[in-house]
Design goal:
Blueprint: H1 7-48, H2 51-71, H3 76-80
Helix pairs in contact: 1-2
Length: 84
């Protein structure tokens, strides 16, 4: 059982754990995408010599990802084998 003096520390530790988890789950993919996206755009511009090539990379890759995501079919009932 926690003593009265330990309760604020336990609440603060729990809150910090939630903030850290939220930061990793929500901010890390965006920061990684910002780094990789600008690198890919620069690579496409340097390799082709055309500034529009980098922009096309920034348009085509997310479009391919969106097409792949919409083609996925997932139903939790299918995995459990419940056919009603």
């Amino acid at each position: 059982m926690l003593r009265d003096k330990q309760m604020p520390i336990a609440i603060f530790a729990d809150w910090m754990h939630q903030v850290a988890l939220y930061s990793v789950v929500h901010f890390l993919p965006g920061m990684t995408g910002g780094f990789v996206g600008s690198y890919d755009m620069g690579w496409a511009e340097e390799s082709t010599g055309n500034h529009l090539a980098g922009l096309w990379i920034s348009v085509v890759l997310p479009a391919l990802g969106a097409a792949a995501a919409t083609s996925l079919r997932f139903s939790p009932e299918d995995e459990r084998g419940n056919e009603s």
